[in-house]
Every structure is written in structure tokens, then in C-alpha cells.
Amino acid sequence: MDSSFPIKTLQTTSSCFHYQDKGTGPALLLIHGSLCDLRYWRWQLPELAGHCRVIVPSLPHYWPQENAQTEFSVYQHARDMLHLLDALNIESAHVLGHSRGGSIAIQMALEQNDKVRSLILADPGIRTRQQESHANFKHEALLAIQEGKLDEGLAVFIDAVSGENTWKRMVRWFKQMVRDNANTLVLQQNEPAFYFDEAIFSALTLPVTLLGGSDSPAPFPQIIARLDSILPQAQSHVISPASHGMNLAMPHEFNRIILDHLIQQAFTN
Asked: How many CB atoms lie within 10 A of CB 33?
């Protein structure tokens, strides 16, 4: 990790936050997904911070804070992120969520729409009742980890969301980050599901950019297509060649789309 972007610690009455904060201008909050933490955005923070204020937190329970006392759920993490914005005196922010972080970003907008200026959703991990069987891989991964087969279990999870043999191709720092957050799978297994609710989501009238990888496996392309059809201000982009970890595979293209989104919002607000 670039030492020029130190990890800051903020203790509030409700939680302890570890985050990076760089740049000036409109605030952009980056929310990581499952098994990740603030290190996931290593190719976004330096480039984006030249254009706006970038806030990159690790969600409570994730490295380096493994034993948070708060509830583990999309709903609690959305409240946590809203509390973080308040603690940093940020009136509103553009919010980018990847995978499970996409659900958190949406819940933030549903809970306090005045705090979220726009949404950027990269392969958002929203569950549908028709796709419940897809979540079985989480149980399989957790069983392997509990049996002491850490890398085997993590490979099951990563390959399910990014494509076969992705774990084998991952670089050392990414594998270490995932190992550091393996304990969160136990918590995630028991969290309340965040389901796709078309009636509620269609009420989101803020600008939304949807990002998908050309090789992202099901259900991500289907989720993006449904969101694109119901969100009144949605724009979709496909990054190629890339899968679920599109911000790592094609960082400059990913960052370009984010900056284009921010520029567009600056001209329309």
C-alpha cells in the first residue's frame, strides 16, 4: 500500500472507523465488497484523489478492525457509512459501491437520500428470491474454511463471483487481503438478506451509473439489466475485458468512467 495515503482512525460514539481520506473537492465514498477492505481501492485512490475528495473506509468487522461490536448487515453498514460522513462533516457524497458494497450504497440512499448525491454501482450484489440457489457457494466456502481449508474455501467464493480459476490467478497482496477478512464470511452467512425490491428501488430518482465486467458471471449482468430498466436516471457501462474485479483488471478505464460521472454531475447540479 502507498505510504503516502496513511490509514486514519476515527472513534465515534457508535463505532470505530479506519479509512483513507485524500484530495479536495466533491466527496466520493468508495465502499468495498465481501472479503475486501480499504486496500481493494489501491488503483483508484491515487488517480481519483487528483480530482475530488476520496474517502476509502474499511467497513466495521473488516481488516484492520476484526472484532467490531456492532451488528453485521447491509443495513448497519449503511448506517455506519452515513455516520462516517457526518463525523467527517461531509454534507453529501457521491457513493460508489462494489458487489456487496453496492447494496450498502443503495441502502444509504434509501435511508438518507439527502446524504447521497449520486450512486455508482459496480456489479452490485443484490439478492433476488429467484436466485437464492446461487448463494449456496457461500455455505460451501464457509464449510471449507471451518474445516481448516482456508485457501480452498476462499477459492470457492472468489471463483463463484469472478469466474473459474480466478483465485489461482490473483496476485499475492489480493490473496492476503482476502485471507485477512475470511472471518467475515461467518458473519455474512447469518446477515439478513438485502433483496431486490423493484417498487422501492424505482423510487430512487438520483443519478446512477451502473458498471459491469464483460466476463462477470451470473447473477451480476442480470442485476444490472434489471436496475437499468427501473432506475429513472441510470446509465450502464461494460468494462472489457474484465470480470467482477473490474477496477483491478482495468483500473484506468474504471477510473475514467467514475470521473466522467462526476464531471456530468458537476454540470447538472
From this structure: 22
